[in-house]
Amino acid sequence: MSEWILGVIGGSGLYNIDGLENQQWIEIETPWGAPSDHILFAEFAGVKLRFLPRHGRAHALSPTDVNYRANIDALKRAGCTDVLSLSAVGSLREDYAPGDFVQIDQYIDRTFAREKSFFGKGCVAHVSVADPVCARLSDLAGQAARKAGAKVHERGTYLTMEGPQFSTRAESELYRQWGCDIIGMTNMPEAKLAREAELCYASLGMVTDYDCWHEGHGNVDVSSVIATLMGNADKGRDSVRHLITALSKMARTPSPQAIETNLDVAIITAPDARDPARMAKLDAVAKRVLSS
C-alpha cells in the first residue's frame, strides 16, 4: 500500500484549512450505529483526507456518548490508512504548560461506561496495545506541530477518565502519583478500537489547563479550556497542514509495528464456531482477515 489516506478526529475548527480541495460531507452508515457526524472528504497536496468531528459539529455529544466503535468503523469504511487525533488535555506536570502540545505514547484507561471492542461473543480477539500508538505517525505529527510553532513534548502518558465532570483534587493528585502526564476524556477506547481495525493511530494532546492540582492556578472549567483551545487553534490547523505536506512527499509503506496485520495473531475463535451476525458487523474492520 503506497497511498496515505489520513483520518483526522478532533474539533470542527481544525478542518478550516486553506487549500482543502474537493470538499464533501458524506454520511457513512455502520453496523455499530451512527458516528458522531458526517465525514468531510477532502484533499490537500494530493493526499486524501477524512475529517470527523468527535463530538459532532455542534458539540452535542459528551465523551461518554461518543460512539467510538461507529467512528472508527466509519473511518475504516472511508478508506483511512492512518488516523490522527487532536484532543484537549489537562496537565499533571509542572513542565507541561497550557499551550504546549504532547505526543501521547501511553494510556491508562479509567473509563467504564463505553463499548471498548468490535469483538466479543461469536468472534473473540485479543490485540496487543502494549504500544498503543503508531510511533511513525506520532513522530511525523510532532515534527509538524513544531513547524507550526508549538512547544511539543515527545512523550506523555494520558489518563483517560470517564467524565463528564472534571477530576476531584484527590483524583488529580493520585494520577500524578501514578506517573501520568496528562488527563483527558476521549482517547480511550478510541486508540484500542483503531488497533483492532488495523489503523495506524496517533494523538496530539493540546494542553489547556493544570486540572485542579496546581496551587498556582484555578480549578479547570470550560471557559478556560475553550480560551486556551482558541489560542492554539491556528497551531492545531497548521500542524495538520504540515503533517499532510510531509505525507505528500513520501510513499506509504507498512508501519514498522506491523499494525496493518495485527489481527493475524489476534482472533482466537475457530472459523466454524464464529457467529454469522458478529461476522457481518466486522465486514469493514476485519475484512482483510475474515475474507481470506
Kindly describe this structure.
By secondary structure, the chain is α/β, with parallel strands linked by helices. The protein has 7 helices and 11 strands. The protein has one domain: 3-Layer(aba) Sandwich (Rossmann fold), CATH 3.40.50. Strands 1, 2, 3, 4, 5, 6, 7, 8, 9, 10 and 11 form an 11-stranded mixed beta sheet that branches. A hairpin with a 2-residue loop joins strand 3 (39-44) and strand 4 (47-53). Helix 2 (135-147) crosses helix 5 (222-248). It is globular and about 60 Å long. The model has no long low-confidence stretch (mean pLDDT 94).
Total of domains? 1
Stretches with pLDDT under 50, minimum 5 residues: none
Q: N-to-C SSE series?
A: EEEEHEEEHEEHEHEHHH
The CATH H-level superfamily is Nucleoside phosphorylase domain
- According to DSSP, the number of beta strands is 11
* DSSP summary: helix tally: 7
- In percent, how helical is the residue content? 25-40%
The CATH first-level class comes to: Alpha Beta
Question: What is the makeup of the main sheet?
Answer: 11 strands, mixed
| Cα Rg | 18 Å
Category by helix and strand content: alpha/beta
CATH architecture tag: 3-Layer(aba) Sandwich
The coarse silhouette is globular
Question: What's a concise summary of this model?
Answer:
With 292 residues, this protein is α/β, with parallel strands linked by helices. Helices cover 26% and strands 21% of the residues. It has helices at residues 68-77, 135-147, 169-177, 190-196, 222-248, 276-281, 287-290, and strands at residues 5-10, 21-26, 39-44, 47-53, 82-91, 101-103, 106-109, 152-153, 157-160, 182-184, 200-209.
